[in-house]
Amino acid sequence: MDDRQFRNAMGKFVTGVTVIVTEVDGVEHGMTANAFMSVSLDPNLVVISLAEKAQMLGKIKRSKTFTVNILADNQQELSMVFAGQKKEQQEVVFDRLDGKPVIPGAVAQIACEVSVEHVEGDHTLIIGKVTDIHLEESEPLIFYSGRYRSLSEAQPVIV
Ligand code: FAD
To answer: Does 158 reside within a domain?
Structure first.
């Protein structure tokens, strides 16, 4: 088994796409991430997994807060901006939820305070305690096998 096979296997797990946002010294920083899941209902906890080399990691360690923004299917460009896949810098205007920066138009905006950090291999798992949530009635952006997709292209399973 090699790393490529591991990546290919992980890519077979269908996910949404989030942008994690934090703020340090009044400057917002965003990063695209799909390593996100809920952890606990009581209390409401979520987890994100950040690469050791990600700028975001040091910033969240300082701010102790972050938001998870589940992107809508018309926000692929924002995913590319915050994954560093666009050549030109783009100006992004943020809204606020519980005083924290969030992405306008996201399907879900989830505000968190850092509860625990756990280093594992070349990533750090950050568990966040959810402090507020805002939801929109729109369809999510999908990521599968290294490609962006939309729910509308998926065929419903007939049983
Ligand atoms: P940078 O690379 O410096 O920033 C990322 C980009 O966001 C830069 O282009 C920067 O200009 C832009 N940006 C940041 N803040 C702003 C702002 N305020 N206004 C405008 N532009 C801004 N990595 C992980 O560690 N975990 C994951 O779960 C993960 N999942 C991913 C899922 C997908 C679908 C993709 C495409 C990538 C994923 N990545 C993940 C990789 C990660 O998104 C990139 O490595 C990213 O570049 C790391 O960001 P950084 O914090 O190091 O900051």
So the answer is: no
pLDDT digit of tens for each residue in the chain (159 aa)? 899 999 999 999 999 999 999 999 999 999 999 999 999 999 999 999 999 999 999 999 999 999 999 999 999 999 999 999 998 989 999 999 999 999 999 999 999 999 999 999 999 999 999 999 999 999 999 999 999 999 988 777 887
Provide the CB-side half-sphere exposure for 105 (13 A, CA): 11
Atom of ligand 1 at shortest range from CA of 57: 51
Q: What is the CATH number of the domain that holds 62?
A: 2.30.110.10
- Cβ(92)–Cβ(101) under 8 Å? no
Structure token digits, residue 18: 């989030």
Which ligand 1 atom sits closest to the C-alpha of 21?
A: 15
Distance in angstroms (rounded) separating the CA atoms of residues 53 and 48: 15
Atom of ligand 1 nearest to the CA of 123: 25
Q: Considering the domain boundaries, does residue 56 fall inside one? A: yes
Structural domain of residue 83, as residue ranges?
3-153
- Ligand 1: list residues with CB < 6 Å: 17, 28-35, 49-51, 54-56, 81-84, 89-90, 92, 143
